[in-house]
From TrEMBL:
InterPro entries: UDP_GlcNAc_Epimerase_2_dom, WecB-like. The keyword Transcription does not apply. The keyword Methyltransferase does not apply. Residues 27-350 form the UDP-N-acetylglucosamine 2-epimerase domain. Its EC number is 5.1.3.-. One of its GO terms (molecular function) is isomerase activity. This is Nucleotide sugar epimerase. Gene3D superfamilies: Glycogen Phosphorylase B. CDD domains: GTB_UDP-GlcNAc_2-Epimerase (cd03786). It is an enzyme of class 5 (isomerase). Keywords: Isomerase.
Amino acid sequence: MRVCSIVGARPQFIKAAVVSRTLREVAEEVLVHTGQHYDEEMSDVFFDELEIPKPEYNLGIESDTHGRQTARMVAAIEPVIEETDPDVILLYGDTNSTLAGAIVGSKRDVAVAHVEAGLRSNNRSMPEEINRILTDHASDLCFAPSRDAIRNLTDEGITDDVYWTGDVMYDAILDARERSADQSTILDDLGVQPDEFVLATVHRASNTDDPENLAAILDGLTDAPLPVVFPAHPRTVNRLQEHGLWERATSELELIEPLGYLDFVRLLDTAERVATDSGGVQKEAFFLETRCVTLREETEWVETVECGWNRLVGPETAAIREALTTDWEPKSTPRPYGDGMAGQRIISLLQQHLADSEPEEQL
Ligand code: UD1
Ligand code: UDP
């Protein structure tokens, strides 16, 4: 079995690391990095820490408008597929790199498998929502992290080769939690104590590109009763500067460069609570039992809200302040995202699918 895995953005490196490790024991993997994220701290650090093999191809696409970036990825992925002739293209999440891989797979009639299929925010103004819908509809195999994701696919008429696998990020965090507690020195490096700081991340286009939303979030964070550690995504650094908010952010928050996975997990595990608009961080907060204040109006990870570990506040100063200052208790701690074996399940399903689709031997 030859699998072409396509990744490009930070969360995809973390997800692919879980699968690649075991995949390479049973199959040939061609790892393609589109180059969507390219700064050392947005890309290389994850390959090093998570021991992800060096990509066989780095397409070097980097930042661009959504249309051009996706189109350039499509144009660069197609010859790789032609040259390597994989049995399946394996995609993760909802970025432009995901969509580009789905387009090439469906145009060249190569099986497409989508990890994190079926997630919906029901907000079509979010670029990721369109990427998810298009990728799921172009996929031959949908690997859903939760029962809710399967329901979303069914509602859209996607019912063949849909599998519940659990979430690969849960697999990842089980390993990272222990390793980060052993290895990370980030608390000492920053001079913060467990439970005595708030962690924050912001990078969604709707929050960073709108100056009013970014200012409202900044106002809410600066009102937090504890110091706020803010590892800033490069997009957010650019927008803070462009919107004239940089001085305020750096003077009132502990604004630092993006962190490697182990340092970030260590902070998330020990923070009093986290404020974020990230999809992955909402889930990881839930896994680590850190209360999460989500700087969005809706979420794909509805289970985290239902059980009370996650609160949706949107880019609203008063709501952020309230969620960061008042005490609230989660209702329950369910396990909707599997048992830490999602990666293994995905590989078995790929093997099974490819064995089933082998042509019958001629008699
Ligand atoms: C992308 C994904 C988003 C995901 C996020 C993970 C899409 C549409 N969005 O958003 O779903 O949550 O990655 O972090 O695919 N930049 C750098 N250096 C880098 C990478 C980006 O400076 O290594 C800057 C550039 O100015 C770029 C901007 O960040 O224009 C945005 O990067 P891009 O990859 O387009 O989108 P993200 O906001 O990172
Ligand atoms: N992350 C990290 N360093 C950081 C911020 C986030 O390693 O400084 C990790 C985080 O643990 C999670 C992933 O990056 O696994 C989430 O990525 P991001 O928030 O960029 O994207 P999203 O999940 O929203 O697509």
